[in-house]
Amino acid sequence: MEVSNGEGKNKTESETKEIVEQIPPEFAIKHPLQNRWTLWYDNPAGKKTTAEKWAENLKQIITFDTVEDFWRIYNNIRPASKIALGSNYHLFKEGIEPKWEHEQNKRGGKWVITVSKGKNPKFDIDNAWLWTLLACIGENFQEEDEVCGAVVSVRQRQDRVALWTKTATNESAAKSIGGTWKRVLEFSDSQIIGYQSHEDSMKTSNSFNNPNRYEI
């Protein structure tokens, strides 16, 4: 049987202190984002529902404002591809609810892309969603004030990612944002994406099957 005289403990504590002192001080600093962002989730369980019932399913998960907190959250929740069919993640600037009728959204619209399941393993819904999130929190858009947030929707046959903007009638800003998003997603010029207004969505009570106001 070995008998410890306590020197090993002191040595371990000394080594730990030395390692901590060697960590660059910038590693302990959090890097603030320009905006605070809130992550939301809803799962209507595949049932058609009223706006009121849908709002009851919408849950606010967390609000963050640093790069480190974003990654802490992202790495500890299910990826988009693993959430329930029919459910959605929403990432919006703090104070903006992911609803058509919200004051910051009701005059706006959204760019939409569809991702077919299993068609292109290099471009799946998880990559599309992550690249969109990074573009939003990283302020990649020249008209950043027009960006409200983004939504990923997981469905049976194909998934969708939508990028919401504040003003549907601001064609130049909308197209600039859409063009930047296409570059972020590494789309070619021949890949066309469409922009739909929330006003049309509210009239039809349909999220995606509305005429495109713009295409790029």
The ordered H/E elements are HEHEHEEHEEHEHE
Text of the CATH class:
Alpha Beta
Query: What order do the strands of the largest sheet run in, or round the barrel if closed?
Result: 2-1-3-5-6-4-7-8
Distance separating the two termini: 76 Å
* Main structural class: alpha+beta
Q: Total domains, how many?
A: 1
The CATH architecture assignment turns out to be 2-Layer Sandwich
Range of helix content = 25-40%
Here the CATH topology equals: RNA Cap, Translation Initiation Factor Eif4e
Global geometry: globular
The count of DSSP E runs of length 2 or more, i.e. the number of strands, is 8
The averaged pLDDT comes out at 87
% residues in beta strands: 25-35%
The largest sheet, given as strand count, sense and whether it forms a barrel, is: 8 strands, antiparallel
**Could you list the spans in which at least 5 consecutive residues all have pLDDT below 50?**
1-9
What do you see in this structure?
This protein is of the alpha+beta class and 216 residues long. 30% of the residues lie in helices and 25% in strands. The protein has 6 helices and 8 strands; from the N terminus they run αβαβαββαββαβαβ. It has helices spanning 7-22, 51-57, 67-74, 125-137, 171-184, 198-204, and strands spanning 32-42, 59-66, 88-93, 109-116, 147-153, 158-165, 194-197, 214-215. It has an 8-stranded antiparallel sheet with strand order 2-1-3-5-6-4-7-8, sandwiched between helices. It is globular and about 65 Å long.
